Structures are given as C-alpha cells and as structure tokens.
Amino acid sequence: MPKREKNQWARQLVEVVKAIKLLSRNNGASIEELVDELGVQKRAIQRLKKTLDEDFHLPLHEIDEIGEKCKRWRIPKTATIILPNVDTIGLSIQELLAIYVLRGVAGIYKGSSIMSDIDNAFDKIGAAIAPGPRKMLDKYSRLFVVAPKSAKNYAASDGNVEDLSFAIINQRTCKVTYHAFGSDEVKTYDINPLHFFEHDGGLYLIAVITKYGDIRTFAVERFKKADWTDDVFEYPTDFDPERYLS
User: Fold this and answer.
1) What are the sequence ranges of the domains in the chain?
2) What sign has the CA pseudo-torsion 86, 90, 91, 93?
3) How many CA atoms lie within 13 A of 2 on its CB side?
C-alpha cells in the first residue's frame, strides 16, 4: 500500500508558497537553491515543478545568467493565476492561497450578512482566476468545515491527520484501522474521507464507508492507522456537510 513521506502533505502548501516567492525573483532560483531553501531533496523539486505547472498553471522558464554554472528557473511575470486588477491591490499568489485555506473556517458566519459578503468576495476573486487554478484553490477551501474550537492535543495523531488531509484534497480512498468506542473493538474500513470538523473539544472526520455507502462520523484520535490508496472517489453530489452537522 502506498505511503507518503511523513509530514509531506502538511509541508506541501508551505513549499509551494516559498517556491513561488523564490522563483518570482528577477534572477529566479536554481534547483540547488530550492533544495536548500525548502529543505527538500532534489527529486521533490520535480514534483513541485509539476504542481506549479499543472495545478496552478505557472510554467517555469529556464534563464541564462552570466557566470552561473547551474541552470536557473523563473516564473515569468506574465504567468499569473490572477488578473492585473486583482494584483494591483497587493494580493500576491501566496496570499491568495492563504485566503482560500482560510475560507474553510468562514462557516462560523453561515446565514449572516458577513457570510454573504464573503461569498460575494470569493465570487469576484473566482471570476479573475482561470478555471484550472480556481478548481485547485477550491479544494483547499473544502479541507475543513467548521464547528466549535478543538481543545484536544492531536500530536499523537499527526500522521493520520496529514494522510487523511491529503486524501480529502485528492479524493483518495483510505484504508483505516479504527478503535470503535461503542463496541470497544478495533475494526478496519475502506473509507472516502470528505471533511474534518471540530466539535465540543474534539476533531472529527466525516467519511463514506465504501462497503455500505453510508456516511459516518469518526473521532480522529481513535484512528490507529490511516493509509490513502490509489483509488479515486467522486464527492457525493447530494451531500451537504453543514446540514449533516446540524
């Protein structure tokens, strides 16, 4: 069963933001500089370049620098996932990524005029972004749906949270081992993870059990193991997570 390098997903967004900053400089960055600044191995740079190109439509151009012995790469100034009128207000690509991540916690304002303003703002931002990058950004905003703040320490579940997060974003089926509270039994499931949510001091996962097709809630700290697989699932079109949580 495939297993990602521990903490890879948690670092991915940070790597992308740092890489964009480095590659947007006038003299761009060499592979060696990216490896040093991002703290990754050379083989990870190829994955990063593919992410920038395919997910965010930010191609890398090779540039020639006099006296340089190694190749340098740069994101051309004309390559942007936002229109100039958005960029002129000081909204950088990395700030746009951060905003989309934070959109996932805006659900606390659901039903209010603030939520309406937030939706209107994202409609305007979305209109200024090409369909491909906008689809990827929307995935970041779906990572969390909001309920009350969590008070528990999930350090021991860190790896499982990261693997489940990766699976939510990439819509991958997971094989999990779970300690059920009611029966006090350890069971193994194939699940399609949909959302995390926080409630009454705990972190929970909404997921579809593939064998039965029903949606259930799992306490994150009760996962003994969580591994994503190569099987891709479709998000249930008739599922409303906010209605489910109510």
Assistant:
1) 8-74, 84-141, 155-245
2) positive
3) 11
